[in-house]
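Appendix B, Record 12. Input sequence as logged:
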Amino acid sequence: MDNISQNEKLSTIVKALDSKRAEDIRIIEIGDLTIVADYFVIANGTSSTQTKALAEEVEFKMSQLGIEPNRTEGYQGATWVVLDYGDIIVHVFYKETRDHYNLERLWSDGKDIDVKQFLPDEPQD
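Logged structural output:
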């Protein structure tokens, strides 16, 4: 299972977040800016319970692919859960915490990747 492409990983992460109704899912390509990772995936929940559920769903779906995080942080307070998959780091925030830290602004030199390519077409209401 170790031959899973970054696109497959990103797709799995985004779909997991979307399935649990994550808000404002963003993918930022940061590989040219840092050796930390190639991508950040950022999303938020509207409660600490949802935030934790979002992170758990990502972990569950990735482990079904045989991929476990190198590190996880933040499950205790569940206001900012980090799942470190090496090349992809997932940040799941509680909404207010996300607004406060504003990673998107900190990493604004990164390249925004269109999340829609990883989601099934949904009817617009």
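The first helix runs from residue 6 to 19.
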